[in-house]
Amino acid sequence: FQHGRPQRARARARGAGNHHLGDRAMSSGLGDVGEGKLPAMCEDYVAKSNAGDVEACICMFDKEAVYGSSTVGGHVGVDAIGTMMRGFFAKCPNVHWEVEPGGYKMADETTVEFDFVRTGVPNAEGRDTRQRGTERVRYTRDSSSGEFRIAQVSVEVHDTQAL
């Protein structure tokens, strides 16, 4: 553990040692289909988050997904991610992400990246904050259903201001 986060999950969240996720996603043959569909899926993920529909968000993850955030730490597997998300949304019921129109961009063949402004996350004193950050969402195609699933989320908060 380092800073309350499992080392393995922390390394994965930063992108180190994620070759197996990238290889799995790329071997799924996302190609042009992914590039056309994934930004819209990512926008839908954020819309569900803004609506507080945690269970719908959790259903978007691959069972072996990895989630890493400078806010909530590292989590491996959909069950651990679901537990984290339920706790986060219970603690932050008014959380809201703002993303500029057209802000969901393909970072590579399988990954969507966007900058956000997030409100509704209290600081240690309980005051609401405004946070600026970047989120990267990597997708894979489920081998049995053919549906796109979230394989990895990496969130980095760059700046936090108390409101």
Automatic annotation (TrEMBL):
InterPro entries: NTF2-like_dom_sf, SnoaL-like. Residues 1-29, 123-143 are annotated as: Disordered. Residues 1-13 have a biased composition (Basic residues). It comes from the Eukaryota. Gene3D superfamilies: 3.10.450.50. Residues 43-141 form the SnoaL-like domain. Residues 125-141 have a biased composition (Basic and acidic residues). This is SnoaL-like domain-containing protein. It comes from Hemiselmis tepida. The lineage of its organism: Eukaryota, Cryptophyceae, Cryptomonadales, Hemiselmidaceae, Hemiselmis.
